[in-house]
Design goal:
The protein contains 12 helices and 14 strands. It is of the alpha+beta class. It has an 8-stranded antiparallel beta sheet with strand order 2-1-13-12-11-10-9-8, sandwiched between helices. It has a 3-stranded antiparallel beta sheet with strand order 3-7-4. A 3-stranded mixed beta sheet has the order 6-5-14. Bound molecules: the ligand CC1(C)S[C@@H]2[C@H](NC(=O)CCCC[C@H](NC(=O)C[NH3+])C(=O)[O-])C(=O)N2[C@H]1C(=O)[O-].
């Protein structure tokens, strides 16, 4: 179906709802066949009261998973990786089951337990315990392997950060470089993503950025400024910093076939069910909207920041929407409605 025009007024309304539900700030940018639409509400910094600016940088959380998947699919294009090979082929002895393949890892069907379930069971204490910590990939995988697998290899979709820690280990092993170098050389530089960085183990966000606020579990407790953290608990699963402009460029380029071969992109778009109106490919989410349009991208939830970044099938229209609060289910659900405004031109009921 032809995509209806974006509903900018409706988009602003969604951002205002997120603000009323506890997000200090919220913003969105739509790139629509060369036309740029922007909307922001609230502040970037609760102390200074500085208004949020759509060019402010922020932590993208699990949108990082698409960066890691793109690097690995490029390595597959180069004949240096086989998606259906056992992870054991490349990382002998790391995982306890040789049946787990690279494809299983990139589609959250490995059964590897998500170590963040324990790490962040208590939101603020869990965050404070790791916010300046530096982990090795292996330490994170070991935390996961203390638990039984959640499914047999190749079973049902079960989201797990552990999978994209393994993805980071694969990138390092196959290239001899850290993910920072591979993201830079293969994605950031070619697409000129000048607001995009992989900072680890530093805790700062380069240049002008919005602060992010973690909502404590206890109702009514004061927000925690979560801006400064190593994100070492996530790394290749969640440590990229970017902007609405750069994420729109990234997902549009990906779906336009500018980052991988057509065959590799087709592999990324082999979907497994991942909840209502959702499917997961390889480091890529598909969401099916009320107007019959499907959009492709990823979501992110890192302390202080919720992000939705999705593009249309042909990469012609792209939206990145961010709220500067996390651990707030109402804000998370409300921000999903920016997709309806951007791609269906309506306000989902
Ligand atoms: C599947 C998700 C939503 S969760 C996953 C990943 N983020 C994490 O695993 C961190 C979860 C803890 C974050 C914290 N929550 C708690 O501590 C709760 N006790 C908060 O809200 O700031 C990411 O990003 N993904 C999102 C994704 O892929 O969309």
């Amino acid at each position: 179906p032809h995509e209806p025009a974006p509903d900018l007024a409706g988009l602003r309304g969604v951002l205002r709802s997120a603000q009323s539900q506890g997000a200090p700030g919220a913003m969105a940018r739509i790139d629509d066949h060369g036309t740029v639409l922007r909307a922001t509400v609230g502040v970037a910094d609760r102390k200074s009261g500085r208004a949020l600016d759509p060019s402010d940088r922020f932590r993208v959380g699990s949108i990082t998973k698409t960066f890691s998947a793109v690097v690995l699919l490029q390595l597959a294009d180069e004949g240096r990786l086989r998606l259906d090979a056992s992870v054991d082929t490349y990382l002998p002895g790391l995982l306890p089951d040789r049946r787990i393949t690279v494809r299983h890892v990139l589609s959250h069907r490995s059964g590897l337990y998500d170590y963040t379930n324990d790490m962040f069971a208590r939101t603020v204490p869990g965050f404070e315990a790791v916010r300046t910590k530096v982990f090795t990939y292996r330490e994170l995988v070991q935390r996961s392997l203390k638990h039984p697998r959640t499914t047999a290899p190749g079973g049902a979709y079960a989201y797990s950060n552990t999978n994209f820690v393994v993805a980071g280990m694969l990138i390092e092993k196959l290239t001899g470089h850290g993910v920072a170098r591979e993201y830079q050389d293969r994605i950031i530089a070619p697409l000129k993503l000048t607001d995009t960085f992989y900072v680890h183990p530093g805790t700062g966000i380069p240049g002008r950025h919005t602060r992010g606020y973690l909502t404590p579990d206890a109702a009514g407790a004061a927000l925690v400024d979560a801006t400064r953290q190593t994100v070492s608990w996530a790394q290749s699963a969640g440590a990229v910093i970017s902007s609405t402009r750069d994420l729109n460029t990234f997902y549009s380029a990906l779906l336009r076939g500018r980052l991988t071969s057509a065959a590799a992109l087709a592999q990324m778009r082999r979907w497994v069910p991942a909840g209502t109106g959702q499917a997961y490919g390889l480091g890529l989410r598909r969401r099916d909207l009320s107007c019959g349009v499907s959009v492709y991208g990823h979501t992110g939830a890192v302390q202080g920041y919720y992000t939705y970044a999705f593009t249309s099938q042909d990469g012609g229209r792209t939206l990145t929407a961010v709220a500067t609060a996390s651990n707030n289910a109402r804000v998370h659900t409300t921000m999903l409605r920016t997709l309806e405004s951007a791609f269906c031109g309506t306000q989902a009921s």
